[in-house]
Design brief:
Elements: H1 3-20, H2 22-27, E1 30-31, H3 34-40, E2 49-50, E3 53-54, H4 64-81, E4 88-89, E5 96-97, H5 119-144, H6 149-160, H7 163-169, H8 175-193, H9 202-213, H10 216-236, H11 241-261, H12 263-275, H13 297-300, H14 319-322, H15 328-340, H16 347-364, H17 368-374, H18 379-382, H19 390-410, H20 415-441, H21 454-482, H22 487-510, E6 513-514, H23 524-532, E7 537-540, H24 550-554, E8 561-562, H25 568-579, E9 590-591, H26 601-613, E10 616-622, E11 631-634, E12 638-642, E13 650-653, E14 655-658, H27 662-669, E15 679-682, E16 697-704, E17 708-715, E18 719-723, E19 731-735, E20 738-740, E21 743-745, E22 749-754, E23 757-765, H28 768-802
Parallel strand pairs: 7-10, 14-15
Antiparallel strand pairs: 1-6, 2-3, 4-5, 8-9, 10-12, 11-12, 13-18, 16-17, 17-23, 18-22, 19-20, 19-23, 21-22
């Protein structure tokens, strides 16, 4: 490909992305669900509702963005700016691993933009780049298959504006992975035709991006597909077995380097998986994300079952997790390529993508086959929504559709042959239109709970997609009759415009654009929490509940946490405090405390003990405060009180009790006879013996940083210092600079043996997993650089020798 084409194709996709995200550039908006946050989530909701009516128009989508992705990213960046690795998040859930959470893009290379631009601007730039690169790399890949430039643009636009891309890219943790897929296939194609290509040095970089910036299943599917694609293409090459083995070996080495480059991410994550709440019981939720077979209609007809952004989704599963629409026009040309294009230079590519469509649909659709696969003890597959594999479905249809357009451009077809070719597809579509029209006109009622006239939604969107297809088919049939020489190209241009247009329309329907004023603003209430609560944790009841992980963004402390990877023991502690049992009460992604204003007396007593154990020192209540009680702050919507019975964040006790059974520990912790202010529960014998001397102490937390805690202590006798932060491997303790063992206490917290006298105690998070991972990553980067320099030098010598 000439440099001129590279430049103009990049410019084209910059232009298309600018049109797609025009509200960013023209109106200064942000692709962030800020309106949804302000309308439905506290502490903002109370200020934006009147008589039960929400005052802010919004689209109820992408809450994960402000519930964990953006807060985690900004915390990580702020720590890196301070010269620290983003290892630990102390703000939510009694402290949780940060870097190890994996799927929030904490060390994504593009996060360097946060160093130069405000957070909200960086967010927009990141999303813009993701859409641009998805289109650009797909174009380059399809051009490597010798597609006509217009056919390549068509395939790229179909993929770039598919519903999977529109929905997923707006989360900011999928776009670079979606762009990585065609980039990897491009590298494979270039490598197989020219084993000396420098593009192979991008393989470790792409691996790093995949392993640090997206969901593990997405990474798994992309790498598995790329590996199978490479093997299938390799088999067809006319080379000796030795040459093929050498090609495999070189690519395997670069792939291994990519994994090693990502060790700083992989090793902490593997460690967290051992302690996280990922078990067979929690994976049962996957069944609800298997797609009912009738939902396959929406692959061709976007929003057939409605759209979550417009409050009219009536499907039987989750909209975001199962969206797979690419439109009728790409589906038609993919169908054309699969069934009617016999002779093609890349027949194996056609077969690979056709098989991919079949296999991925079987994996995602509710059936005995998919259910069996998901019950296999494979963590990545069995613990995440299976419908994420629709990424490969969407991509495969887009590439095959590009092949179909390429066929139309380069082949003269008679009108009769076109009619016969299109007939089966049109008969199926006509049947869908007929059934949908009948159900709509007869007023068929759906049992969705809120939307009864669901087939009105289906009918409207079916007409829209069918109308767009009819225009495209008119070009397919009629343009060649009037413009013989350029008919194929004109058809392709028309199709590109139509696919981009319908994709643009669906994107505007879904995209949750917002103003800067709604981009996680610091309200007076938030400001008070930041200044009033200090090191104590905060909990809100009822309508005053603070949304999970907002504490992370605003840097105060909350006992609740949301992320699929969290410390299991903490989740078990909160679950037991909620219900007095662990059976079916430990949530998969949330460590939550029941927020009801009142509970049955037995539950209320247990919750009160949980609050005290967790250092929940401040309560937020909705409404007007009562006449009695110490109110430390209030506004028109809520008030804050102090919980005087809460344990201090750090305190000392004299007595120790050893219990090595989890159920017994929990029962003891919540029993009336156990006083956590005097006694600490540990799980094994420790080198400490309580004395009868009276204990007097002064405990003061000097600094409470992300990766460390400094405590000044003065005690009259030997004691046990308890820190109410989660116990986790890698947390070391130092007394006056000398390391001392850290023990798990009160089921999930930390304790150390503290000698009497005046001391400075420092807890530091220094996980071996991160240390070893960092060394491997740095070593791999150095090795890769040396290999590249060596290769470049030898390439110049090789060129010079042959010139």
């Amino acid at each position: 490909m000439q440099k001129k084409e590279l430049f103009f194709s990049a410019l084209l996709f910059f232009f298309l992305t600018s049109i797609l995200l025009w509200q960013m550039l023209v109106k200064g908006m942000f692709l962030f669900p800020g309106d949804y946050l302000m309308a439905w989530f506290e502490p903002y909701k109370s200020e934006n509702i009147s008589d039960g009516t929400i005052l802010i128009p919004h689209k109820p989508v992408n809450d994960d963005v402000f519930r964990h992705i953006f807060p985690f990213q900004t915390l990580a960046v702020s720590m890196i700016k301070q010269g620290e690795l983003p290892l630990w998040n102390p703000y939510n859930g009694a402290g949780m691993p940060l870097l190890a959470t994996l799927n929030s893009g904490l060390i994504d290379p593009t996060n360097v933009l946060y160093f130069f631009f405000p957070d909200e601007i960086t967010w927009n730039i990141t999303l813009f780049l993701q859409f641009l690169l998805i289109g650009f790399f797909t174009y380059l890949y399809t051009r490597s298959l010798s597609f006509h430039p217009l056919a390549a643009i068509f395939a790229a636009v179909a993929y770039m504006l598919s519903d999977f891309a529109i929905v997923r890219v707006s989360f900011a943790i999928y776009g670079f992975a979606m762009a990585a897929l065609p980039l990897l296939l491009l590298i494979v194609e270039k490598y197989l035709t020219n084993p000396r290509t420098k593009l192979v040095f991008l393989v470790p970089v792409v691996f790093f991006i995949l392993l640090t910036s997206t969901q593990p299943p997405i990474t798994f599917y992309i790498l598995l597909f790329t590996g199978l694609y490479f093997l299938a293409r390799l088999i067809t090459l006319k080379k000796t077995v030795k040459q093929k083995l050498l090609l495999m070996l070189v690519l395997a080495i670069f792939s291994f380097l990519g994994i090693a480059l990502s060790a700083i991410q992989i090793l902490p994550t593997v460690e967290l998986l051992h302690y996280a709440n990922l078990n067979r019981e929690s994976s049962d939720y996957i069944d609800k994300f298997l797609v009912p077979v009738q939902h396959l209609i929406s692959i061709g007809i976007s929003n057939y079952f409605g759209n979550a952004a417009t409050y009219n989704f009536w499907g039987q599963t989750d909209y975001v997790q199962t969206v797979a629409a690419i439109g009728l026009i790409p589906c038609f040309f993919a169908y054309l390529f699969i069934f009617f294009v016999k002779k093609t230079a890349y027949a194996v590519v056609k077969h690979i993508f056709t098989a991919t469509i079949v296999i991925t649909i079987l994996m995602a659709v509710k059936s005995p086959i998919s259910h069996f696969i998901l019950t296999l003890p494979i963590p990545i597959i069995s613990t995440d929504p299976p419908s994420r594999i629709f990424l490969l479905t969407t991509f495969a249809i887009a590439i095959l559709a590009g092949g179909g357009v390429n066929y139309v451009i380069n082949t003269k077809l008679t009108l009769l042959k076109k009619l016969l070719t299109a007939l089966p597809f049109l008969l199926i579509l006509t049947s869908i239109i007929g059934v949908t029209t009948y159900l709509h006109t007869t007023g068929f009622q759906c049992d969705t709970g809120f939307l009864k006239d669901c087939f009105t939604v289906a009918f409207r969107n079916t007409l829209l997609e069918s109308g767009i297809l009819s225009i495209g088919l008119a070009g397919f049939f009629l343009i060649p009759l009037f413009f013989k020489s350029i008919a194929g190209k004109m058809t392709a241009i028309l199709l590109i415009v139509l696919v981009f247009g319908i994709g643009w329309y669906n994107a505007q329907k879904f995209f949750p654009f917002t103003t800067k004023a709604h981009f996680l603003p610091v309200s007076p209430f938030i400001h008070e929490l930041q200044t009033q609560t200090q090191d104590g944790r905060v909990f809100g009841f009822g309508e005053a509940t603070i949304s999970t992980n907002l504490a992370t963004f605003f840097r105060f402390y909350g006992p609740q946490y949301y992320h699929p990877l969290y410390i299991k023991r903490y989740g078990e502690l909160t679950a037991y405090g909620n219900y007095g049992t662990l059976e079916n009460t430990v949530l998969r992604s949330d460590a939550m405390i029941r927020n009801d204003l009142t509970l049955p007396s037995k539950d209320e007593k247990r919750r009160e003990r949980l609050f005290n154990l967790l250092n929940v020192s401040y309560f937020i209540y909705p409404g007007t405060p009562p006449a009695a009680g110490e109110i430390i702050w209030q506004d028109n919507f809520r008030y804050i009180t102090k919980n005087e019975r809460a344990l201090s964040r750090a305190f000392v006790v004299q007595d120790v009790l050893v219990k090595n059974n989890d159920d017994t520990i929990l029962e003891t912790l919540f029993s009336d006879t156990f006083d956590p202010k005097k006694t600490v529960l540990v799980e094994k014998n420790i080198p400490y013996h309580s004395t009868k001397e009276q204990l007097t102490s002064t405990i003061r937390i000097e600094t409470l940083a992300e990766n460390s805690v400094t405590i000044n202590t003065t005690t009259s006798t030997d004691s046990l210092l308890v820190l109410l932060d989660n116990y986790y491997p890698g947390w070391n303790a130092y007394i006056d600079g000398n390391q001392t063992p850290v023990y798990r206490a009160n089921y999930t917290f930390r304790t150390i043996v503290l000698p009497k006298g005046e001391h400075t105690v420092i807890f530091r998070y220094q996980p071996d997993s991160a240390k070893i991972g960092l060394m491997i990553s740095v070593g791999s980067a150095i090795l890769l650089s040396i290999l590249f320099l060596w290769y470049s030098k030898n390439s110049r010598k090789h060129k010079h020798a042959h010139s």
